[in-house]
Amino acid sequence: MNVKVIIIGAGGHGRVIADIIRANGDTVLGFLDDDNTKDVLGSISDYSKYADAYFIVGIGNNALRKKLSALPVKWYTAIHPSAIVSPSAVISEGTAIMPNAVINANAVVGKHCIVNTGAIVEHDDNIGDYSHVSVGAKIGGTVKAGQSVWIGIGATVINNVTICDECTIGAGAVVIDNITTSGIYVGVPAKKH
C-alpha cells in the first residue's frame, strides 16, 4: 500500500525521515515548515489542506514534537528497513526509527519518539512519549524512560534504571542509577549538571 505523507519540518531530521518514507515505498508529498525560505508546500498551519495525507513531525526538539502532536491528523510511523525491530516490540504512532537502530523483545517506544541511527533499545524497555534516543546511544534491558527524555549521542543507560520525565542525558554520559529529578545529567557516571 502506498501511503502519502507530509513531513512537518524541512530541516535535516525531516530529510532523513523523507528517505525512510521512500525506502518503505511510500510517497513524500512534501514538507510544511514556517521557514518559507525552504522548499516547502506551505506553513505548518496549512496542514488542513492535506486531509487525505498522513503526517509525521520531522523535528528533533522534543517539546515541539509534543506540541505538534496535538494536530488533528493521521500520523505516520517511519521505520527504516535496515532497523531491527522485534515482532514483540510496540512502536507507537508518529515515531521515527532510523537506519540500523535496534528495538529488542517486548520494548515499548511511545508516541512521536525518535530512535536515531544505530541506537539500541534493549528488551523490556519502555521509552516515554516525545523522547529521543540519539545516534549510537545504548539502553540496557528493562529501562523505563519517562516522557520527553533526550538521551544524547553515544550515551549508555545500564539495565533496570528509571529516568523521570523531562531529562536530558548528555552525549557520552553513563547512567548507572535511577534519575528522579528532571534536569541535565552529564559525565561518567552521569550526575546532575
3D architecture notes:
A hairpin with a 4-residue loop joins strand 22 and strand 23. The longest helix is centred in the N-terminal third of the chain and has 12 residues. It is built from two helices and 23 strands. The radius of gyration is 16 Å and the shape is globular. Strands 5-8-11-14-17-20-22-23 form an eight-stranded mixed β-sheet, with helices on one face. The chain is mainly beta.
Report low-confidence residues grouped into runs of 5 or more. Answer: none
Radius of gyration: 16 Å
Please tally the helical runs, counting DSSP H or I stretches of 4 or more residues.
2
Q: How many angstroms does the end-to-end distance come to?
A: 48 Å
Tell how many strands the DSSP assignment holds: 23
Secondary structure class reads: mainly beta
Give the overall pLDDT as a whole number.
97
Biggest beta-sheet profile: 8 strands, mixed
Q: What are the secondary-structure elements, in order, as H or E?
A: EHEEHEEEEEEEEEEEEEEEEEEEE
Question: Could you estimate the helical fraction of the residues in percent?
Answer: under 10%
- Biggest sheet strand order reads 5-8-11-14-17-20-22-23
What percent strand?
25-35%
Shape: globular
